[in-house]
Amino acid sequence: MNGVALPRWSVVVPPLSVLVLAVGWGRESLGVALLVLVCLALGGAVIAAVHHAEVVAHRVGEPFGTLILAMAVTVIEVALIVTLMVSGGDKAASLARDTVFAAIMITCNGIVGLALLIGSLRHRVQEFRAHASGGAFAVVLALVTLSLVLPTFTTSSPGPTFSGAQLAFAGVASLVMYGLFVFVQTVRHRDYFLPKVDRTPDDHAEAPSTRTALLSLGLLLVCLVGVVGLAKTVSPTLEAAVAAAGAPVSLVGVLIALLVLMPETVAAVRAALRDRLQVSLNLALGSALASIGLTIPAIALASLWLTGPLVLGLDGKELVLLVLTGGVGTLTLVSGRATVLQGAVHLMVFSAFLLLAVTP
């Protein structure tokens, strides 16, 4: 990136995606022409979001740039989850659990595995800071256990749910741990999260001006609104397709999570191709932490006016996948070096998650 003006396409695509969103919003089903238009707008918004995130990241430096993208996506995603829970009634009882667990699987196995595999295919061996990524992964495991595993075994309320006091504790603990992680990442030990090996020519180019960076930040938020809104717009079509295929309803949440996390996925892969695996891990693990750390407190507050049960506890197969993810992730991150083998293992676990989402 340099100090020149933003490419015209990157300025035009965000408002166009919002315009398409306005046209398709509220429709129960989309016609073929509108469905194609929505999909094109969604893809364009994802590409533009990654571009503007890189502009902002180059201006503010790492790890603030990856943090901005992760938090922006997650804040909008949380707003979408709470909105759907308020309007969904009992059908949305497990929406938060399904979305957060899908986000964990996508980030810790899908994004991490893809970045490790593609980056290692180009650079053979990639290095990263084990103490930074390992610490972030430890927080992910602690929060997902406190928020999604414990409700399966508590007895104060019926089913895989929390009592009011337990939910309040989970919400406060999630918010405190996420805030502490952000403090460590950006203030206390910021250098831990910088790329260990940095040979990217673009990093030495002239940084964009403050005005350009602020414009990109605004357009990034517009893009993310477009991505999440367009993902919600296509959800009725996805629901109809899932029902026609005889797949479980929870698959819709997985598909929506995949669409919403596309900007982080593209950005992580591009960073890995540039031999900046630490940036890829910052994006993946930061997104996982933001998903838990912001979603659980949000639904804890929303539960004050939500009716019906709030199902948070994971089922047996999800618990097995979570334990497997924890073990594989720990072994991957403890070494500080990555090859295609680790990437392939993570992608295999992610493939198992997708298979079980379709055929439980």
TrEMBL record:
InterPro entries: Alkaline_pH_Ca-Antiporter, NaCa_Exmemb. It comes from Streptoalloteichus hindustanus. Residues 32-186, 216-357 form the Sodium/calcium exchanger membrane region domain. GO terms for molecular function: potassium:proton antiporter activity; sodium:proton antiporter activity. Its main location: membrane. It is a multi-pass membrane protein. Keywords: Membrane, Transmembrane, Transmembrane helix. This is Ca2+:H+ antiporter. The keyword Transmembrane applies. Pfam families: Na_Ca_ex. GO terms for cellular component: plasma membrane. The chain crosses the membrane at residues 9-26, 32-52, 64-87, 99-118, 130-153, 165-184, 213-234, 240-262, 283-307, 319-336. It is found in: Membrane.
